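URGENT: need a sanity check before tomorrow's submission.

F., can you look over the Outer membrane transport energization protein ExbB record below? I want to be sure the sequence and structure line up before it goes out.
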Amino acid sequence: MSLLQQDTIYPLDSLAGAAQQTVELANEKISLIDLLFKAGWIMIPLALLLFATLVIFVERYLTIRKASKYDPSLMSHVKQSVLSGRLDSALSVCRASNSALGRMLEKGLLRIGRPIKDIEGAIENVGKLEVARLEKNLNLLSIISTIAPMLGFIGTIFGVIIIFRDVEAAGGIDIASVSGGLYVKMIASATGLTIGILAFAGYHTLNTMLERLILRIETDAIEFVDLLDEPGS
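Structure tokens as predicted:
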């Protein structure tokens, strides 16, 4: 056999072997969980971050949504009671509402008779406490959206290290020596980015809901202060 024939046959044999190995890998059924576990230990902190993201988002979403339920009769009843001098009735309605706006108006009603600036300050202080309560743990989503892709990048680095280690051990580059590190590299990166995107989207979704709620509460609070500041009220 000539040298030309040898150079032609051996690469074809290598390609045929690689193609056969690729077909076998394609035919192998791997579940999603098994595929994720191939990324190694880096998936443990990523799984914890995913769990924290889901728990925080669901809990904050339900809390903010509950606080966002608007009762139009609250302001109208408080207005009528204040104008008619029935402060006890207005206080009862505010307490029964069990809402952020109700607690703010209640504080303002308890300050009636004092300077309007004192009333405004009391309402503002209660408003800050209500907003802080609604924002609880919200910043954790922003932190997770930054940390998760970084952890995925760490997995990428470990995947590259594994590839070089396996190539060195095999004495050359082939699919078997590269595939293990590629699993770690690609799965960790994809998982980290996915969790980061989910946390980022959840953070901004909740912030948008909260901003709308705050705007409506502030509008009603200003309307209440204007009512008290009107002559004869």
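My own read: Residues 175-229 form the longest helix (55 residues). Residues 127 and 218 are 8 Å apart (CA to CA). If you see anything odd, call me.
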